[in-house]
Amino acid sequence: MIQEFRKIWKPCVIGLLWFLVLLWPMTGINSDGTLEFAKPFEIWLVVVAAAIVVMLLYSANKGGTLDGLYAPLIKLQKVISQKTAVLPNFVLIAVAVGFALLYPVIFTSRPSHDLAINVLIYISLGLGLNIVIGLAGMLDLGYIAFYGVGAYCYALLNIHFGMSFWVSLPFAAVFAAIAGCIIGYPTLRMRGDYLAIVTLAFGEIVRLILNNWMSLTNGPNGILGIARPGIFYPAFDGGLAIEHIYIRKLYMLYYVALLIAFITMICVYRLNYSRIGRAWEAIREDETAAELMGVNTFLLKLLAYAMGAVFAGLAGAFFASRMKFVSPESFTFLESAMVLCMVVLGGMASIPGIILGSAALVVMQEWFREFETYRMLVFGGCMVLMMLFRPAGLIPAKRMGRRSEEED
Amino acid sequence: MAASPILEINNVHASYGNIKALKGISLKVMEGEIVSIIGANGAGKSTALMCICGIVPVSEGDVRYQGASILQTAAEKLPIMGLCQVPEGRRIFPRLSVKENLILGAFYRRDNDEIDNDIERVFSYFPVLKERFDQHGGTLSGGEQQMLAIGRALMSRPKLLLLDEPSLGLAPMIVQRIFEIIEEVNKKDGVTVLLVEQNANLALQSSVRGYVLETGSVTMEDDAELLLNNQEIRKAYLGE
Questions:
Q1: Residues B185-230: pLDDT tens digits?
Q2: B33-45+79-237 falls under which CATH superfamily?
Q3: Considering CB atoms only, which of B93, B94, B156 is closest to A294?
Q4: Burial letters for A247-265: b for 16+ Cβ neighbours within 10 Å, e otherwise?
């Protein structure tokens, strides 16, 4: 144990000193310009105490002193993983679907419904972006533009032509796909970093158009008074009649979001395991080789952009109907980056991974409101930790095979 | 041996920017032959293959396949016509499984039953791939990756197979095995093979005819046996 401690104490001390240097400017400078030394030092001492405890536990563990303590725990874990491995996949899926359907019954408060709707919107966005990034391997930093196109498409159709949500939904998808093709076409010759920068610029162009085309989009003031989705239901008073109402209850909106997320999941799943999905993966792995094997890379890359945009368009139309208001502010680069984070943190090309990643990031942002000013700091720190401990994402796409030399 | 040329390259020029990579090369491949192009680094061997497949644009000259020019044909259409390339450095799809790699080789084909049969046929050539069936391509060893690359190309049922340096970075034993299989594929399935190699000795031993490429032009062409016995060639490429 002492030997283990000798190995680690040096980097730990350096790390703690570095932490003090970081901590002081963050907590030691007051807003009125005065400096403070006692407070950061106090916080630092608590961290040092905690670090020492962790260091001791770590070296005890490495030295084998604690083995007896958690041997039963490891045994339990093994038993559990064996038991769950027996369960077929559809049971897990059924449990997840059941939970999603019963969510508004289990959690009845408004904020929890709001949160769930946000998660579902981001799941659609993340899965759509996954087609472009995870499958076709094109880094797209302007993805949120398609979300904006979908949202504005429904907003304008509703305000000017009074078209209802369900009728506008396909239009939003088609317009987003067209926008995807327009942005995709000139960028198809580019790869890697260049592609990322060009898509970033296109994303900003779309936002600036929304911001400055006063006569069409009402500029930065946004568009107000967009109708909620309506539902039809049969009424039986005095014979059968079909009645139409606009959804007001939040939990009803939740089900609409759930429907869109389900559609996205099923479509992306089907695409993933289709001939097209395999061709996309080949393009991601090696474009020239894919071309030599007879994959039409031009058409398929364009298709990847269009398909990705379709799901962003659907999510955008729902977003507009849910907020009853759209403005260019909702479609900034930060949003693109957030969706990208969900895809990468969740696990590229892995559908359950992206669902979990979207949920984790949205929920984390809510939780960390308690930290107020430091919210983004803690959020960023958490993302770094997630990346450190699960570099391939929360749920990686496929198990990685062993190197064949190791087997021999 | 049938006498009609399956592939004919006439006076092909190609360049990367200002650098001329090919200065008017001409060569012919007859149906059923194994023909090799040998030459040092930077002689333009790989460029020649990339020109045939339309990845590198041809600035002058013509490439004719089965009697028709394929200069205007898109690269992805060539496998349908029976022309498939195993690119230099293998270039398999590392994060796809061995099976998916093979299925992608038959991308243009829609006959699923036949594809399954062809996968079995590839496994009969390369039994080791069968053991690695589910593994990611990137986790295979170099030799296995080369086998996978050749297997993937065979999945498109080629009439003419272009092989770019199949011996690159492989142990002599494995290279020997791969050349045996190339000859087997040529004899059994009647696939014509155009081989690009630095390993002149092995390449010429398995082929019928050979071309020597030097800084973008063909400096010599002859029967493989005669090339093997040529003093200059022995000096320049066989290290004697």
A1: 999 889 999 999 988 888 999 999 999 999 889 998 999 989 888 8
A2: P-loop containing nucleotide triphosphate hydrolases (3.40.50.300)
A3: B156
A4: beebbbbbbbbbebbeebb
